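Lab notebook: predicted structure, single chain.

Context: the supervisor wants predicted structures on file for every construct in the current expression panel, including those that have not yet been purified. This is the next one on the list. No modifications to the sequence; it matches the entry in the shared construct table.
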Amino acid sequence: MLSAFSDLLSHFTLASILDILLVALMFFGLFYFVQGTRAIQLLRGILLVVFLAILASSVFHLTAFNWLIRNSIPALLVAIPVIFQPELRRALERLGRPGALLSRRPTSYAQVLNTIAHAAGELAQQRFGALVVIERSTGLQDFVDTGVLLDAQLSSDLLLSIFYKNSALHDGAVIVREDRVVAAACMLPLSESNDLDRDLGTRHRAAIGITEGTDAIAVIVSEERGDMAVAQNGRLVRHLDEGELSRVLYRQYHPSKPVSGIGPEVEKKS
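Prediction complete. Output recorded below exactly as produced.
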Protein backbone atom coordinates (compact mmCIF):
# COMPACT_ATOMS: atom_id res chain seq x y z
CA MET A 1 0.00 0.00 0.00
CA LEU A 2 2.91 2.30 0.77
CA SER A 3 4.39 1.61 -2.65
CA ALA A 4 1.08 2.42 -4.31
CA PHE A 5 0.93 5.69 -2.39
CA SER A 6 4.50 6.52 -3.42
CA ASP A 7 3.64 5.70 -7.04
CA LEU A 8 0.65 8.04 -6.83
CA LEU A 9 2.80 10.84 -5.47
CA SER A 10 5.33 10.34 -8.24
CA HIS A 11 2.67 11.14 -10.83
CA PHE A 12 1.76 14.41 -9.10
CA THR A 13 2.74 17.49 -11.04
CA LEU A 14 2.19 21.20 -10.57
CA ALA A 15 -0.71 20.96 -13.02
CA SER A 16 -2.31 18.20 -10.91
CA ILE A 17 -2.09 20.29 -7.76
CA LEU A 18 -3.54 23.30 -9.57
CA ASP A 19 -6.33 21.11 -10.95
CA ILE A 20 -7.30 19.86 -7.46
CA LEU A 21 -7.17 23.36 -5.99
CA LEU A 22 -9.44 24.75 -8.71
CA VAL A 23 -12.03 22.01 -8.16
CA ALA A 24 -11.90 22.56 -4.39
CA LEU A 25 -12.23 26.32 -4.91
CA MET A 26 -15.28 25.84 -7.10
CA PHE A 27 -17.03 23.71 -4.47
CA PHE A 28 -16.06 26.15 -1.71
CA GLY A 29 -17.38 29.09 -3.73
CA LEU A 30 -20.63 27.28 -4.46
CA PHE A 31 -21.27 26.54 -0.79
CA TYR A 32 -20.16 30.03 0.27
CA PHE A 33 -22.48 31.91 -2.05
CA VAL A 34 -25.60 29.79 -1.46
CA GLN A 35 -25.22 29.70 2.32
CA GLY A 36 -27.66 32.59 2.68
CA THR A 37 -30.47 30.70 0.97
CA ARG A 38 -32.54 27.59 1.54
CA ALA A 39 -30.76 26.04 -1.47
CA ILE A 40 -27.84 25.06 0.76
CA GLN A 41 -29.95 22.31 2.33
CA LEU A 42 -30.95 20.98 -1.08
CA LEU A 43 -27.35 21.05 -2.28
CA ARG A 44 -26.12 19.20 0.81
CA GLY A 45 -28.82 16.60 0.33
CA ILE A 46 -27.90 16.06 -3.34
CA LEU A 47 -24.20 15.66 -2.55
CA LEU A 48 -24.93 13.29 0.33
CA VAL A 49 -27.20 11.10 -1.80
CA VAL A 50 -24.66 10.98 -4.65
CA PHE A 51 -21.82 10.13 -2.25
CA LEU A 52 -23.76 7.34 -0.53
CA ALA A 53 -24.91 5.92 -3.86
CA ILE A 54 -21.37 5.82 -5.26
CA LEU A 55 -20.04 4.33 -2.02
CA ALA A 56 -22.72 1.62 -1.94
CA SER A 57 -22.24 0.66 -5.58
CA SER A 58 -18.46 0.43 -5.12
CA VAL A 59 -18.47 -1.53 -1.85
CA PHE A 60 -21.19 -4.04 -2.76
CA HIS A 61 -20.31 -4.24 -6.50
CA LEU A 62 -23.84 -3.45 -7.63
CA THR A 63 -23.42 -3.57 -11.40
CA ALA A 64 -26.86 -2.34 -12.47
CA PHE A 65 -27.00 0.32 -9.77
CA ASN A 66 -23.48 1.48 -10.65
CA TRP A 67 -24.50 1.82 -14.30
CA LEU A 68 -27.55 3.87 -13.27
CA ILE A 69 -25.43 6.20 -11.13
CA ARG A 70 -22.82 6.72 -13.87
CA ASN A 71 -25.50 7.64 -16.39
CA SER A 72 -27.43 9.86 -13.97
CA ILE A 73 -24.52 12.11 -13.00
CA PRO A 74 -24.32 13.94 -16.38
CA ALA A 75 -28.05 14.69 -16.18
CA LEU A 76 -27.58 15.90 -12.61
CA LEU A 77 -24.78 18.24 -13.68
CA VAL A 78 -27.14 19.76 -16.25
CA ALA A 79 -30.00 20.02 -13.76
CA ILE A 80 -28.02 21.75 -10.98
CA PRO A 81 -27.54 25.08 -12.86
CA VAL A 82 -31.25 25.08 -13.71
CA ILE A 83 -32.35 24.35 -10.13
CA PHE A 84 -29.95 26.87 -8.61
CA GLN A 85 -30.27 29.57 -11.27
CA PRO A 86 -31.45 32.29 -8.81
CA GLU A 87 -28.69 31.39 -6.35
CA LEU A 88 -26.00 31.42 -9.05
CA ARG A 89 -27.18 34.83 -10.23
CA ARG A 90 -27.06 36.12 -6.66
CA ALA A 91 -23.60 34.63 -6.19
CA LEU A 92 -22.24 36.59 -9.16
CA GLU A 93 -23.91 39.75 -7.87
CA ARG A 94 -22.37 39.28 -4.41
CA LEU A 95 -18.98 38.59 -5.95
CA GLY A 96 -19.11 41.94 -7.71
CA ARG A 97 -19.89 43.92 -4.56
CA PRO A 98 -16.99 45.71 -2.85
CA GLY A 99 -15.85 43.81 0.23
CA ALA A 100 -18.03 40.79 -0.54
CA LEU A 101 -15.31 38.37 0.52
CA LEU A 102 -14.36 40.21 3.71
CA SER A 103 -15.74 38.66 6.89
CA ARG A 104 -17.50 40.77 9.46
CA ARG A 105 -16.61 41.05 13.08
CA PRO A 106 -18.20 38.51 15.47
CA THR A 107 -21.75 39.40 16.41
CA SER A 108 -22.97 39.75 20.00
CA TYR A 109 -26.29 37.97 19.75
CA ALA A 110 -27.25 38.94 23.30
CA GLN A 111 -27.08 42.58 22.24
CA VAL A 112 -29.04 41.85 19.06
CA LEU A 113 -31.81 40.08 20.97
CA ASN A 114 -31.98 42.80 23.62
CA THR A 115 -32.19 45.48 20.93
CA ILE A 116 -35.08 43.71 19.23
CA ALA A 117 -36.87 43.17 22.56
CA HIS A 118 -36.45 46.83 23.53
CA ALA A 119 -37.73 48.02 20.14
CA ALA A 120 -40.70 45.64 20.39
CA GLY A 121 -41.53 47.03 23.84
CA GLU A 122 -41.50 50.59 22.50
CA LEU A 123 -43.65 49.59 19.53
CA ALA A 124 -46.15 47.81 21.79
CA GLN A 125 -46.52 50.90 23.99
CA GLN A 126 -47.32 53.01 20.94
CA ARG A 127 -49.59 50.33 19.41
CA PHE A 128 -47.48 50.02 16.24
CA GLY A 129 -47.73 46.60 14.61
CA ALA A 130 -44.42 44.92 13.78
CA LEU A 131 -42.93 41.67 12.56
CA VAL A 132 -39.19 41.01 12.95
CA VAL A 133 -37.65 37.75 11.72
CA ILE A 134 -34.23 36.67 13.04
CA GLU A 135 -32.32 34.53 10.58
CA ARG A 136 -30.39 31.57 11.99
CA SER A 137 -28.77 28.67 10.12
CA THR A 138 -31.48 28.39 7.47
CA GLY A 139 -30.97 31.16 4.93
CA LEU A 140 -33.87 33.54 4.27
CA GLN A 141 -32.49 35.16 1.13
CA ASP A 142 -35.54 34.08 -0.89
CA PHE A 143 -37.73 36.18 1.41
CA VAL A 144 -35.20 39.03 1.60
CA ASP A 145 -35.52 39.41 -2.17
CA THR A 146 -39.27 40.10 -1.84
CA GLY A 147 -38.68 43.24 0.25
CA VAL A 148 -36.69 46.47 0.18
CA LEU A 149 -32.98 45.91 0.74
CA LEU A 150 -31.50 48.01 3.55
CA ASP A 151 -28.34 46.28 4.90
CA ALA A 152 -28.27 48.70 7.84
CA GLN A 153 -26.90 48.39 11.36
CA LEU A 154 -29.56 47.06 13.71
CA SER A 155 -30.85 49.58 16.27
CA SER A 156 -34.05 50.26 18.18
CA ASP A 157 -34.46 53.62 16.46
CA LEU A 158 -34.23 52.00 13.04
CA LEU A 159 -36.93 49.45 13.87
CA LEU A 160 -39.16 52.16 15.34
CA SER A 161 -38.82 54.27 12.19
CA ILE A 162 -39.53 51.29 9.91
CA PHE A 163 -42.73 50.27 11.73
CA TYR A 164 -44.04 53.81 12.27
CA LYS A 165 -47.60 53.88 10.93
CA ASN A 166 -46.89 56.41 8.20
CA SER A 167 -43.69 54.68 7.07
CA ALA A 168 -43.65 53.22 3.59
CA LEU A 169 -41.97 50.07 4.95
CA HIS A 170 -44.21 49.28 7.92
CA ASP A 171 -46.17 46.59 6.03
CA GLY A 172 -44.43 43.25 5.81
CA ALA A 173 -41.56 41.82 7.82
CA VAL A 174 -38.08 43.01 8.72
CA ILE A 175 -35.39 40.33 8.37
CA VAL A 176 -32.36 40.54 10.67
CA ARG A 177 -29.13 38.72 9.79
CA GLU A 178 -26.45 38.80 12.47
CA ASP A 179 -26.44 42.47 13.59
CA ARG A 180 -27.81 43.88 10.31
CA VAL A 181 -31.30 44.74 9.16
CA VAL A 182 -31.08 43.12 5.74
CA ALA A 183 -34.47 44.11 4.35
CA ALA A 184 -37.89 45.48 5.24
CA ALA A 185 -41.40 45.05 3.83
CA CYS A 186 -40.66 41.38 3.10
CA MET A 187 -43.43 38.97 2.17
CA LEU A 188 -43.70 35.78 4.23
CA PRO A 189 -45.76 32.61 3.73
CA LEU A 190 -48.86 32.36 5.88
CA SER A 191 -49.35 29.30 8.04
CA GLU A 192 -51.96 26.88 6.74
CA SER A 193 -52.44 25.15 10.08
CA ASN A 194 -56.04 24.58 11.14
CA ASP A 195 -55.15 24.61 14.85
CA LEU A 196 -54.55 28.36 15.13
CA ASP A 197 -56.78 30.70 17.12
CA ARG A 198 -59.23 32.58 14.95
CA ASP A 199 -58.25 35.90 16.52
CA LEU A 200 -54.72 35.70 15.11
CA GLY A 201 -54.03 38.29 12.43
CA THR A 202 -51.89 38.20 9.31
CA ARG A 203 -48.67 39.09 11.17
CA HIS A 204 -49.04 36.18 13.58
CA ARG A 205 -49.90 33.74 10.78
CA ALA A 206 -46.93 34.95 8.73
CA ALA A 207 -44.64 34.58 11.75
CA ILE A 208 -45.82 31.02 12.31
CA GLY A 209 -45.57 30.29 8.58
CA ILE A 210 -41.92 31.36 8.28
CA THR A 211 -40.95 29.35 11.36
CA GLU A 212 -42.71 26.20 10.14
CA GLY A 213 -40.30 25.86 7.22
CA THR A 214 -37.12 27.37 8.73
CA ASP A 215 -35.33 27.62 12.07
CA ALA A 216 -35.89 31.39 12.19
CA ILE A 217 -37.35 33.20 15.21
CA ALA A 218 -40.12 35.73 14.63
CA VAL A 219 -41.12 38.57 16.97
CA ILE A 220 -44.62 39.98 16.58
CA VAL A 221 -46.14 43.16 17.99
CA SER A 222 -49.92 43.33 17.80
CA GLU A 223 -51.28 46.65 16.58
CA GLU A 224 -54.75 45.97 18.01
CA ARG A 225 -53.82 44.66 21.45
CA GLY A 226 -50.39 46.19 21.92
CA ASP A 227 -48.89 42.93 23.19
CA MET A 228 -45.86 40.94 22.01
CA ALA A 229 -45.35 37.36 20.89
CA VAL A 230 -42.59 35.06 19.63
CA ALA A 231 -42.88 32.27 17.06
CA GLN A 232 -40.45 29.39 16.57
CA ASN A 233 -40.86 25.93 15.01
CA GLY A 234 -44.47 26.78 14.17
CA ARG A 235 -45.38 27.48 17.82
CA LEU A 236 -46.40 30.78 19.34
CA VAL A 237 -45.58 32.27 22.75
CA ARG A 238 -47.97 35.14 23.45
CA HIS A 239 -48.72 37.94 25.91
CA LEU A 240 -45.14 38.86 26.79
CA ASP A 241 -43.73 42.02 28.28
CA GLU A 242 -40.29 43.34 27.31
CA GLY A 243 -38.39 41.45 30.00
CA GLU A 244 -40.13 38.16 29.24
CA LEU A 245 -39.62 38.69 25.52
CA SER A 246 -35.89 39.18 25.99
CA ARG A 247 -35.58 36.01 28.08
CA VAL A 248 -37.70 33.93 25.71
CA LEU A 249 -35.64 35.10 22.74
CA TYR A 250 -32.40 34.19 24.47
CA ARG A 251 -33.75 30.80 25.53
CA GLN A 252 -34.98 29.99 22.02
CA TYR A 253 -31.77 31.19 20.41
CA HIS A 254 -29.66 29.24 22.92
CA PRO A 255 -31.89 26.30 23.94
CA SER A 256 -29.04 24.61 25.82
CA LYS A 257 -28.62 27.58 28.17
CA PRO A 258 -31.39 27.84 30.81
CA VAL A 259 -32.77 31.28 31.54
CA SER A 260 -34.37 31.89 34.91
CA GLY A 261 -37.22 34.22 35.66
CA ILE A 262 -39.85 33.03 33.21
CA GLY A 263 -42.61 30.68 34.29
CA PRO A 264 -44.46 28.04 32.30
CA GLU A 265 -47.59 30.21 32.26
CA VAL A 266 -45.91 32.43 29.66
CA GLU A 267 -45.94 29.77 26.98
CA LYS A 268 -49.37 29.36 25.52
CA LYS A 269 -49.78 27.36 22.38
CA SER A 270 -52.03 29.09 19.93
